[in-house]
């Protein structure tokens, strides 16, 4: 029943059926009432007519026998008559059936009929009389008493009576016909209701199936419009809606993909918060940053934000205004911008954009250190150049030998300034990527050994033993720029010799480490302290703080070496134990021959 009631066909069928049933019920009741009244009036008219005819026959004919024969012919089959010239006494009668005497006695003794003998009034009454067909059974009869002229002062009465079973049978047949007609009407109504409902709901069912397909995302679903009425127009509108939905969903997906691509490609971290401070959306940089915060804090909470950001989020959600600050979080610097998100007029959340300023701070510090270091490095030679040149101009040197010594110092300091400027230019080119490398495949053993042997004389002069060792095959090769690698080797070997005391040794060793060739320069000199070791590849950093004229370098050699090795897709590092020596090593990719 629920299935029928929940369907359009069932609802239409039940509605039409109830409407037709109600109309048929009202029509049947009114029709039966009308037919009952009509039959009663017809019976009364017939009885009155027959009574008048009987009275006229008796008045017109003197012979009673012939009058009774005529009366028997004209009255109906179901009608009987009693003629009484005196009250309580029947003179003549026509009775077809049983119980005639009892019937006549009850009719003649009925008090309501006695006034008919004295007046010209006709009386009709429904009475219970013995049955015409069965003994000891009473039936309903309609009895008409009409005056019959028999004398001047008094007159007789003709009684005509008819069983109401005839009328009941007629009413029953009529009722049966009416109910049969109603049943046929209900069947036809049901058939046409289902037919009409099916015609209406068939396209509706198709549209329902199409709507489910649309809900699944199949926007190419089409519903065939089989008519031009409202349902056909609805099908056309449904197809147009499907096309519009497909277009709008495609536009939304495109915008979503564009937004996702923009968020994914952004270097800044973007985090979207709900009103309850939960994270709704974050791009990859933001997810990486959140994971770092969780890892550092050891937090497993759903909200890994630092307290500073939570305070900013509370401010934005509470006051509904944008806020921008630069904070130091976990040793890193971030420029953070919080903006409220609105849904209509109410705030529904906030979006945070975090720009990592750590590199800018580092570069700013490097710039400041660079300016300070350059100023420091240039100040000494410039002061010496200025002082000695003024002494020469003022003829301070008494002898030619003193003037020559001052000129030599001026020359050495100018060379030192030239080396510093050259190193700065080389470092700037390397860091900017403008320095071109001329790579070629070179056998490592022969190349590194040649670069090492160039320092044999310098090592002897410093009473240092210089040795070359290798554990790789002679055919092992790498693709490199020999001049730049020689610049690295020169810097590392020169540093090792300068910082190795007399009777010390420097060993240049070549060995294989997985897919790389490891070239290390090892000495047993004074070593580098742990606090200085991590800064040796920075510009202008000098582990030996003494800047002597003879051995003082520019502090840029290791920084240049680091950039050259990185340009060769290698790695450079240093290991040292203070008082026991230092080892500088760099890795170069081996070339498969």
TrEMBL record:
One of its GO terms (molecular function) is kinase activity. Residues 373-592 form the Histidine kinase domain. Keywords: ATP-binding, Cell membrane, Kinase, Membrane, Nucleotide-binding, Phosphoprotein, Transferase, Transmembrane, Transmembrane helix, Two-component regulatory system. It is found in: Cell membrane. InterPro entries: BphY/WalK/GraS-like (IPR050351), HAMP_dom (IPR003660), HATPase_C_sf (IPR036890), HATPase_dom (IPR003594), His_kinase_dom (IPR005467), HisK_dim/P_dom (IPR003661), HisK_dim/P_sf (IPR036097), HisK_sensor (IPR041328). Its EC number is 2.7.13.3. Residues 198-250 form the HAMP domain. The chain crosses the membrane at residues 12-32, 177-196. It catalyses: ATP + protein L-histidine = ADP + protein N-phospho-L-histidine. The keyword ATP-binding applies. It is a multi-pass membrane protein. SMART domains: HAMP, HATPase_c, HisKA. This is histidine kinase.
